[in-house]
Amino acid sequence: MSTMVLHYHIIGEESNEQELVFAPNTSTHFSHIDHDRSGTLMEPYPAKDAEIPSKALDNRGVLFGGLGWFARLEFPHLNNIMKLGERVVIESAMLKLYPELGTYSDINALPDSIYLYIADENNVVTDAVKDYLGSEVQGGTLVKDNVYNENTYYYFDVTDFMQQELGTIGINKHNLQLVLNEDSYTQTFKNMTFGDRQSKSPIVLQLIYKIYESY
Description:
Layout: E1 4-10, E2 16-22, E3 60-64, E4 71-73, E5 87-97, E6 114-119, E7 125-128, E8 141-143, E9 153-157, H1 159-165, E10 175-180, H2 182-187, E11 191-195, E12 204-212
Antiparallel strand pairs: 1-2, 3-11, 4-10, 5-9, 5-12, 6-7, 6-10, 8-9
């Protein structure tokens, strides 16, 4: 549900700031969103239930509230580190996503929080990337570079997910779904565009792992 907020001042001896909120009647209101993708990289794809590879979007992933757009993250080469030794154990894993410069501003501000959910090969959500206590869904921490505006990023601790995913194959493999929070996803036009591995500011998975050998 969207609302309109009018900010105004009452002129007097002292400044008196006021606001007036226009909210629809929740029992009778109707909301509908139309969007036109003509002339964009998304034009060839259907408006619903479409998986668009990041390569087709000039190496980008896009989240967009109100339209239901989210990003699917896959790690097809994770098992390659198992070739490095007789036994490999992941100690920690951090995921960093860099919003693309020019896609956000003071007017179109970045979402305060984004979230990761775990899904199977059919995109059915089976769990969430949770906080260190394991009780709540982990919100990606936004680090802002307010000086040079070049090193702004979100980061997640995905250690548990990577530890469980290491060594899985076929239908047992999972992916991560990057989404906005529930309110932003359904009630706002919050959005975030980030780069994939081939972009100028690529998504980064930082792994620390141990390699064991028998002698």
